[in-house]
From TrEMBL:
Gene3D superfamilies: 3.40.50.2300
Superkingdom of this protein's organism: Bacteria
Record bears the keyword DNA-binding: yes
GO molecular function annotations of the record: DNA binding
HTH luxR-type domain location: 142-207
Protein name according to UniProt: Response regulator transcription factor
Annotated Response regulatory domain residues: 3-119
Length: 215
């Protein structure tokens, strides 16, 4: 059972989402908050497995709550929602340790699937937000040198963006785990990244990731 805390400043939205999540056999909401302060307090008190957190809360940015919550409980998984994403906010969320970033008007099925598969150390970006991020950064991308990745490196990068472990990626691509790790190292070097998460963010900026809809 995944224990979930909801933090959103829209009461109706929160109540409807809580009801929908509680109908799932493996999900259970344990509390709700409307402010960053209350979200931090309830995270400390209830110790949920996962928090669904809106970017806009009554007393400020949800990113402030993310920073405080993960500083105290690094094992907490956080899925962030927003109605008006920006590249800067998405980058900050990824850097802080948010597991996934979804549009607030997205499908319930997509949110439930994300909650079930959210893992620490990965960052999942909804395809619609990826398109917006690529569009907003298009002018900057034209000014930046494009990283030259091979077809196989692009395949590994796409699986990396989905949060797939190296061992599983190697099996999917039919290559050895050591070979796959070699591709990962090459991708990090070419994208000037120090982690897989940073590589995914940099690749998104450069438009190197194909948009893949969830099944």
């Amino acid at each position: 059972m995944i224990r979930i805390l909801l933090a959103d400043d829209h009461t109706t939205f929160t109540e409807l989402l809580a009801g929908a999540l509680n109908r799932e056999p493996d999900l259970c909401t344990v509390g709700t908050a409307q402010s960053t302060r209350r979200a931090v307090e309830l995270s400390r008190e209830l110790q949920p497995d996962l928090i669904v957190l809106d970017y806009h809360l009554t007393d400020g940015s949800g990113l402030a709550a993310v920073a405080l919550i993960l500083a105290e409980r690094p094992s907490t998984r956080i899925v962030m929602l927003t109605g008006d994403p920006s590249p800067e906010v998405i980058e900050q969320a990824a850097a802080l340790g948010v597991c996934a970033f979804l549009p607030k008007d997205g499908s319930l099925a997509g949110l439930v699937d994300t909650i079930r598969h959210a893992r620490l150390g990965t960052f999942s970006l909804h395809p619609s937000l990826m398109i917006q991020l690529s569009t907003q950064r298009q002018s900057r991308m034209l000014e930046q040198p494009s990283a030259s990745l091979t077809r196989r490196e692009l395949d590994v990068l796409a699986l990396m963006a989905e949060g797939t472990e190296v061992r599983i990626s190697a099996q999917i691509l039919g290559i050895s785990e050591n070979t796959c790790r070699g591709y990962v190292k090459s991708i990090l070097a070419k994208l000037d990244a120090h982690s897989q998460l940073q590589a995914v963010v940099n690749a998104t900026k450069l438009g190197l990731l194909e948009v893949r809809e969830r099944v």
